[in-house]
Amino acid sequence: MSVPRHRWYFYKEGFSPLLVEKAIEVANVKPEELIIDPFNGSGTTTLTSSLLGFRSTGIEVNPFTSFLSDAKTKTSSTNEINRWRDSLMLASQKKASSPLMGYSTFSKAPGLEKWLFNDDVLMAFEGAWASTSDVKSRDLRKLLRLSLISSAMQNCNARRDGKCMKYKESWKRLGYDRTSFQERLFQNIEVIKEDINSTNIKKAPQIINGDSRTILKTDRSIDQFKLCITSPPYLNTFDYTDIYRPELFLGKFVKDTQQLYDIRLKTVRSHIQAKWKSPEQLDFGLLFQQVMSHVNANRDALMDKSIPTMIQAYFEDIYGVLKELRLKASKDAQVWFVVSNSAYADLEVPVDLIIGDIGAKAGWFLQEIGVLRYLKRRKTKYSPSVENLRESVIVFSAGK
Ligand SMILES: C[S@@+](CC[C@H](N)C(=O)[O-])C[C@H]1O[C@@H](n2cnc3c(N)ncnc32)[C@H](O)[C@@H]1O
Q1: Ligand 1 within 6 A of CB of 17
Q2: Which pTM was predicted?
């Protein structure tokens, strides 16, 4: 949150730009060579590559995060930004009605004890958002819309907490309103101006909004990459379309739950919030078999009976991606895969080691599995004795 441009949006699940820099150095990437990230999230890979002058492509299924990664690489003149900032401030004074007022738990409504946004915040947001349609420059429009979404989330009565939104302590007393929204908007736009003036996007990235499992098969622009540095969703039942639901609705990327569900169906099968086709039941070696036997034999100790199917499906998705990546790799390419282990039925699932096996099955040479850190787990009744989870980077290479 202190690095220019990266700090334009608080995205908890991102990795560090330093890791991307390290991978670029170790893989010895030349400026004309391609860097890709098939799970680009908030765009740490593409932004870092762009600032260093490398060609990069990011694929991201969630339209909000895809927009975020794109917006973070945009630039505009201070004069233009100032002019539009003043217009947005005026527009946020209007009594604009928001489609989210009265929808789900987005605003105060009869029978609701808690709501995400106070009406004043939604109205200020909507008034300013409507005026961004008049901004001719697409880049500037993206910058302004990003700062609007960010300001709304900073005025949200709840904050992200792991897999859910948790209401802030004494949230009613915080009294978010039009003024607090405008203050945040002003600050966010100041930060954007400052960072645009202190950084230089040397090579704009290509950002593709879609499912990497199909894009990698069909998109011809992704070929002969030198480095893939990525972090897929972890095997932890975390659903990014749920956790970024407020942003998806605020930014009008979705209008209803059906559209949200349609995106969810395209995500990697790392959660249980969608009905997918059954996995094919591929085998990924001894460690994988041990995990499957353990979870199948201890179904009563699982939070949901579909967890064994999810685990099988997850590794099949990862296998599919690593196989496609192998076909698109240059002869001395590397893949850096960041994952954490998971816990099911009181067993630590060694996701990193299993992915090591899966990569070999997909035609990669396993170079190394390096431990990044140990993540402290909250105690749950399902896996009481697993206290920490290893987070690792698995490095594969195309040549020996
Ligand atoms: C751990 S996050 C990546 C964070 C990223 N490294 C960063 O620094 O911001 C995983 C991302 O994978 C995305 N994702 C899930 N399924 C996907 C799919 N089928 N295709 C592309 N992206 C997907 C999620 O939406 C999420 O943004």
Answers
A1: no
A2: 0.97
